[in-house]
Amino acid sequence: MASTQSEVPTLEPSALTNLIASASASGNLLSATTIQVLHNLQHQHLWTSLQIHDTGASQTATDPANGSSKDISGAPTLISGIPPHRVYTHPDQQLYMLGKGIHEDDLRPERLFVIPTAQGQTWSLRRMASAFDAMAEFQIVEDGEGRAAPEVDAEKAQKLDEYYKKREETLATKEWGAQRLLLAMVDKGMGGDGTVVYYVVQEGEVKPRQN
User: Fold this and answer.
1) Cα 93 → chain centroid
2) Sign of the dihedral through C-alpha 122, 123, 124, 130
3) Gap between the Cα atoms of 168 and 147, Å rounded
4) Per-residue pLDDT, 194
5) Rounded distance between C-alpha atoms, residue 25 and residue 33, angstroms
6) Distance CA 87, CA 200 (A)
7) Nearest to 81 by CA among 109, 55, 56
8) Which of 45, 52, 49 is nearest to 108 (CA)?
9) 84, 138, 147, 191 — which has fewest CB within 10 A?
10) Rounded to whole angstroms, how far apart are CA atoms 115 and 121?
């Protein structure tokens, strides 16, 4: 009886591979790294209201503190979106929330910015600073696609109102920390499996806390 050689099944391209290929074919200038991070945020981490911000369209940004202009020509492309839960809460902010009896689920969802990058990519403090400067240029009006704040009673509503006023004050005083974003790093090295790792990056100098 003649032996038959088993056929090797053909593997279909992944959804991510098709997405990157279609973007390249259409002449989309977005890098494969940006598309991969966007896909990862949407389908693995369930972010909503995702947007891509081309910082190259604007070469200057206005400093909200004093109104001066800053050069952001070296700023990377940014992604922003609304995560399903808070990624980082400053310790002093946590203490304030505990004192007021406010839980994470009581708060409105907050948009967070992400820098898509690949392992081994060269960075500098100037380029990282330009990313924070560029964030101020993208004032986004939410359309309600993200998780809506739950209905609360009058007492909780008053506490939340006090919290949001306090939050506005701390944006100027940086009492609860300065601006922060996520650095998304894709493993594309030899043998890399495309895993995306996220790091919290805070603007400026972060003083160590005493326990």
Assistant:
1) 20
2) positive
3) 21
4) 75
5) 16
6) 8
7) 109
8) 49
9) 191
10) 12
The answer to whether residue 56 sits within a structural domain is yes
Structure tokens at 192: 């890399």
Residue 176 included in any domain: yes
- The total number of structural domains that make up the chain: 1
Tokens for 144?
């309600």
Q: Distance between CA atoms of 204 and 189, rounded to whole angstroms?
A: 30
Beta-carbon contacts of residue 207 (< 8 Å; ≥ 6 apart): none
Q: Do 177 and 90 form a contact (C-beta atoms < 8 A)? A: yes
Q: Is 65 buried (19+), middle (13-18) or exposed (0-12) by CB count in 10 A?
A: exposed
Q: Which residues of the chain are under the pLDDT cut of 50?
A: 26, 29, 57-62, 64-66, 69, 71-72, 144, 146
Q: How many CB atoms lie within 10 A of CB 31?
A: 17
Question: Is residue 170 included in any domain, yes or no?
Answer: yes
Which pLDDT tens digit goes with each residue over 127-176?
Answer: 888 888 888 777 665 554 545 556 678 888 899 999 999 999 988 888 88
Question: Which pTM value belongs to this model?
Answer: 0.74
Alpha-carbon torsion angle 82, 123, 205, 131, nearest 10: -40
Give yes or no for a contact between 113 and 181, defined as CB atoms under 8 angstroms apart. Answer: yes
Domain of 139? 47-202
Residue with tokens 């992944």, as numbered in its chain: 14
